[in-house]
Amino acid sequence: MATDLEIARAATLRPIREIAEKAAIPEDALEPYGRYKAKVSLDFVNAQKGRPDGALVLVTGINPTAAGEGKTTTTVGLGDALNSLGTRAMIALREPSLGPCFGVKGGATGGGHAQVLPMEEINLHFTGDFHAITAANNLLAAMVDNHLYWGNELGLDARRIVWRRAVDMNDRALRSINAALGGVPNGFPREDGFDITVASEVMAVFCLAKDLADLQARLGRIIVGYSRDGRAITARDLKADGAMAALLRDALAPNLVQTLEGSPALVHGGPFANIAHGCNSVIATRLALKLADVVVTEAGFGADLGAEKFLDIKCRAAGLAPKACVVVATTRALKLHGGVAKSALGTEDVAAVTRGISNLRRHVQNMQKFGLPVVVALNKFTGDTEAEIAAVREAMRPLGTKVILCTHWADGAAGAADLARAVLELIEGGSAAFEPLYQSHVSLAGKIETVAREIYHAASVAIPPPVAAKLKRFEDAGFGDVPVCIAKTQYSFSADPTLLGAPEGHVLPLRDVRLSAGAGFVVAIAGEIMTMPGLPRHPAAEGIGLDAEGRIEGLF
């Protein structure tokens, strides 16, 4: 069986100008990066604002497992299938992070015959967006320490600096560091640390900005630390916002690529969903909506993370209203949620599937709480049995949710045609009545408790006094109306990655809260989740290299 990389390499890509023509993007609006990828000029993006929007479809999934679910693959397959049926469709995805690519998860361009291309370039340096975001983040960090060195005119308290450095790599050794060691010439020693770039506030700002002016305004609102009397010091106070925006100017233009079957895809921005808000850029999504009748986009990890944040943060900020939602699952993953070991997934076990369906059921019901009609995409593996598939269909029937068997990994668009028809049926049915889960006027603690209760089915939220005091300070400073972005494990509805299925009555333990004033939300860190991941014992990087002809091998 051919690998994803072999399938991608065997494909005949079309010149990017042909893909742009299919999307009604003129050639003079393109800034090519080679033959098969290009940025779309912001002038063209801005010129589309008066056009009507197409229908937005959200693809999400159950809590991820080692068995795999295929959320990105389904997003690509669905987009291809819609185009094959004569619907003008575009795909809007996040850019992959180098951390997971060289860690354990691999890339994020789909798989099999449902991929976005050029696979190696998208998964690695692509158009340099992440490098620009990292540079902007670290420019601000450098200007913070430089300000301390040259007299600290703003009175920034070195003990209360909250801005951290960033690198787009899994590197646990950088989580907590001592900076500016070596004596007077190197500045004032202090504790510091790194986050992975995709967890940084600059990434969130980049993805939520509506245009260049909004980008610079948001960058200026970033809080880097506090004075001794508690006054917030911002990037604008340090006069760093203009230079940061300059570094990000070219990156803010969305990236156009193609699928294996020639569908246009915008791949832009890439915040993590278990730490940040997990959605591609507002600019790319809005452009796609102006150019296509249906836009298929994806939110990271399970629906408890990416989809909730997509709906409560991104849609709220950008004024988006999805028309339908696809929840992706596999019988293999449901067996894992039902307590079966990974080594036993090849054996029929209807009882385990039935137990694991509790996870799928809750995600479907959660999406319905937002007023979205839902269809389940069940990605088929060769070992799946009719009895297992029937169990999933039977369980979804009381929820009024269809279960569509999908084979786009093997068959491309043809394998997702039934899913495309089901999605069009939901859109045309007009039953979507999107509403965020909570209103802006609810307290920050109340918002966290609402998500924990309604989405995670937690009994309560444990908020230590120092964390509660920080939430009050945020509200007193005028940030009580912003949404919350809960950072927790992706593997469970709870903060405990070992609690699979659909746990009830657990406690969500908050460890810290961080104000992202530029992005416009408060991050609530629950359990042991880290904003700088580490590499596994045997990272994927060990299997990646170049062959005798200089081609990349081992990337997945």
Concise overview:
With 556 residues, the chain is of the alpha/beta class. The chain is built from 19 helices and 25 strands.
Strand-helix topology:
Elements: H1 4-10, H2 16-22, E1 30-32, E2 38-40, H3 42-47, E3 55-61, H4 71-84, E4 89-93, H5 98-102, E5 110-111, E6 114-117, H6 119-123, H7 129-149, E7 156-161, E8 165-167, E9 177-179, E10 190-192, E11 194-196, H8 201-208, H9 212-221, E12 223-227, E13 232-234, H10 241-248, E14 255-259, E15 264-267, H11 282-291, E16 294-298, H12 303-318, E17 324-329, H13 331-337, H14 350-369, E18 374-379, H15 386-396, E19 403-406, H16 408-411, H17 417-429, H18 444-454, E20 460-462, H19 465-479, E21 484-487, E22 507-516, E23 521-526, E24 545-546, E25 552-553
Parallel strand pairs: 3-16, 3-17, 4-15, 4-16, 8-11, 17-18, 18-19, 20-22, 21-23
Antiparallel strand pairs: 1-2, 2-14, 5-6, 6-14, 7-12, 9-10, 12-13, 14-15, 22-23, 24-25
Helix pairs in contact: 4-17, 7-8, 7-10, 9-10, 13-14, 14-15
Structure description:
This protein has 556 residues and is of the alpha/beta class. The protein has 19 helices and 25 strands. The strands form six sheets. Strands 1, 2, 3, 4, 5, 6, 14, 15, 16, 17, 18 and 19 form a twelve-stranded mixed sheet that branches. Strands 20-22-23-21 form a four-stranded mixed sheet. A three-stranded antiparallel sheet has the order 7-12-13, with helices on one face. A hairpin with a 5-residue loop joins strand 24 (545-546) and strand 25 (552-553). Helix 9 crosses helix 10 (241-248). The longest helix is centred in the first third of the chain and has 21 residues, at 129-149. It starts with a helix and ends with a strand. The mean pLDDT is 96.
